[in-house]
Design a protein that fits this description.
Blueprint: H1 2-16, H2 18-21, H3 25-66, H4 79-98, H5 105-118, H6 122-135, H7 140-155, H8 159-173, H9 178-194, H10 198-211, H11 217-231, H12 235-243, H13 252-268, H14 272-284, H15 292-306, H16 309-322, H17 327-342, H18 347-360, H19 367-421, H20 444-487, H21 491-504, H22 510-524, H23 530-543, H24 548-557, H25 568-581, H26 585-598, H27 605-619, H28 623-636, H29 641-685
Length: about 700
Amino acid sequence: MKKKRVLPVLLLSVFLFHGCFVYDPAASFVAQRYTNTVSYFNTFYNAERLFSEAESEYLRAEREYREQADQSRPFSVPAAARTKFTTSIEKNSKLLSFYPRSKWVPDALLMIGKAYYYIGDDVRAERKFLELAAQYPGSDEALEGTFWRGRSLLRMKKTDAAVELLLQLESKALPVDDDIAGRAAYELARSYFSSADYERALRYFRRTLETTDDDDIAPEAQYQIGRCLELRGEFSDARYAYDDVQRYGPGYTLQFNAELSSALVVARMGQYDAALDRLNDMLDDMKNREFFGRLHLEVANILMQKGERAEAVQKYVYVDTAFARSDAAARSYFALARYFETTEVNYDSARNYYGRAKTEFPASAVTAEAAAKHEVFVKYFGLTRDLARYDSLILFTARQKAAGDSAAASYRDSLTSKDSAVVRPPAPKKAASPGRKGEMKPDTSAVDSTFIKREAARLAAHTVLTDSLRRSVLRTKFELGGLFFLEMPIPDSAVHWFSMVVATGPESELAPRALYSIAEIYRSILPRPQEVRDSLYRVIIERYPASPYAQEARKSLGLPLLQQERDPAEELYASAEVRAELGQVTEALSVLRDIERSHPLSPVRPKAMYMSGWLYEHRLTKSDSAVAVYRRLLAQYPATPYAAEARPKVAAVDAEAKRIDEERKAQELERQRLEEEEKAARTNAVKPVSAPADSAAAPPKEP
């Protein structure tokens, strides 16, 4: 019996331990497939979990940012959310690499694109959305991906392509997905609003309300409807639209903005007392305490509109004091500066208040304009000081000349009296003769010669100095005219200073420029009858026939142009053009600099300056040098067509410099915030965690 049991036992042993000793391909394949399936499911699950957490954190931070009273600092992606977005991208990318035919590939592509969008990488985001649309054109993910691609294109300033895409999406999604259609309509409305197409913006904001159920989008769309109506001048409808915002459950900040906008549009309708009542009611509500500075500022603005200037100024001063270092204070200083500039015509106070406005709250929207206006008034007071100094020096030199003339006359009288006392025969041809004590008697002819030379030198120096001072006076008056004409602008004052140039320096090269500038003011800013302008053109032609402004005057009068001798600067300019076309940019710039330096009165000079800037900008890609030349051109020839071409280039550079500076400040603030978060995290990490004495230590949880 024992022998019979041995075989079954052996067979059972072999069967039980078969896997340990013999390789079975089928079993290994099944196990490997199971392992791979679990692995790639975990990869997708973790990627999706990280993305969902990051998106929730992002949207929560964005919502909190919108609810802040102070939004001077730009919104930034939370550091933890950015890290999770990046990790989600990495995990989804692995899934696409190892499992390109998985059923979760469309979800992975959509997640990657949205994650790139959230962290601000619009180029990569658009690429993923295009890939999703190409591979899965009929999927729900592709429909949503098209919406996000439209948003990416908008943020990349590819407005035409974005609008075309969103229009197609909105009509396509409307029957199948109201939410996508509503969000597409909202993005279209925002795009139309930014391009000042308020009619279309209004249409699509209303369509947004008809289709979307998004609690964040609906109140914002209703508020924007009010803005569109206000900008179209439909104030009564705008007021009701602002009041209707509360029906959609807005957040705190949006509700405040809607109430404030409703009050301000009432003021625009001329109902100042009703508007003030609304603002005072809002000031009585303590929930608005974060916005009290802004409310007091708007009260001051309405008082100013109402004509109660003293009360308005008093309120502005209160805002500056009670809400220092805020946007409201910066705007208040700016309003005071405008008041003293335009109403009181007190330029000293205007300069001071513009100076305070530009430094009070750097992130304020009025900072850049305040800085520019402050610079204008600094220039104005610099020119007026120069003018006073030149006048004082002219008076001083005139007195010195009078004193010198008096002394010279006395000296001549003394010589005459000595000569008339004793009439002597002509002196022998020797320098001097010995006196009684061996002294040398002076040679009166040598004394007279020295005196005459000294007097001639003194008179010549006085003439040169006086002429130089008078030219400086004329140039300063002309610059004051240009300041009032182009930068302040106050055309009446510009005409006054240009007229002073013509009256005090009718023979100077600035006189025809001043007359032509007056004619331009009468043509474009202070319209005068045609005969008034024509009379100025005729004066330029009669008095200054060789001036380039006489040629321009002839064009304006329809008269034939004079055939003038070729300007040598024109030949140099033609030479520079040839060199530039041949690629000899350095040589061309040298010729253009020679025109600028050696031909200050040539009409070719501003054209040569513009060409120099253009060559630096486009051929040598030296933007700093180009901007420097453009700035000289704007300063010296502000009314020329070349200055008109250069002005937006300089403005763009200044705007970009401002943007970079603001971005640098934002990055610095973000860096400081992250350092504080890391420091707080380290502090929390090293804190000992004490458990109750009667509890057993629990094992650590898996992350």
